[in-house]
Write the structure tokens for this entry.
Amino acid sequence: MLKVQDLKAAYGRVSAVKGVSLEVAEKEIVFLIGPNGAGKSTLLKIVSGLHRPSGGTISFAGAEIANQTPETICRRGLVLVPEGRHIFGTLTVAENLFLGTTIRNDRAQIRADIDEVLAIFPILRERYNSAAVYLSGGEQQQLAIARAMLQKPRLMMIDEPSLGLAPLVIDQVYESLRQLNAKGMTLLVIEQSTARVTDLASRVYVMRNGKIVLHETKASLGDGSSLTDAYFGDA
Ligand code: ATP
């Protein structure tokens, strides 16, 4: 569904992505993990049209999308949940959710989709009319994912969903990712930690210093020890 080939990007003279290739097939949940500064967010920004690549190709659902505008890419069904969630604190949960529907034309279907999203994230139903600023970090992460779902993505990319969350809350967020994937949503998830990915992943890429240093599939992943080795530089 998504195929990135030999992608390169720089900030001025600093090369951040140095020839990355990866793919995500329909209904997969793929993790891209790596330490701070590895280039993971830059890669997602390029795929979303927010940063221009200096080389390489990106095909999504059969179309070449490198250098298309963020809006065009989003309308094609590739939706990013950015790092930091970008929730509007003074707006209510309901209003934040409605923001996810603004690119849609099928008004009649929106109410049913909001109900479906609230079934996956019951806490958002409880807090539906509260200002989002009063939500905890984990609840805000769920709101960001729920809002992205309402854009009807074919592939959702999530930048560090566990960032700043307590372990129990991360479990909840991961449970919602599992449910989303079980319902057929294709996911590309970025994380800094190798923890928790082995149970869920269809495939995992480890990125370090702008390059993919390891690619494992569910079949080759085993207990995940190769991930830790690659992450810390022993591979
Ligand atoms: P993190 O997990 O901390 O977000 P990351 O793996 O997502 O890290 P990137 O944010 O993509 O890494 O950063 C890759 C490299 O590009 C780093 O060396 C970073 O300092 C640099 N970089 C990122 N954004 C910019 C920017 N706007 N201007 C200049 N350099 C940048």
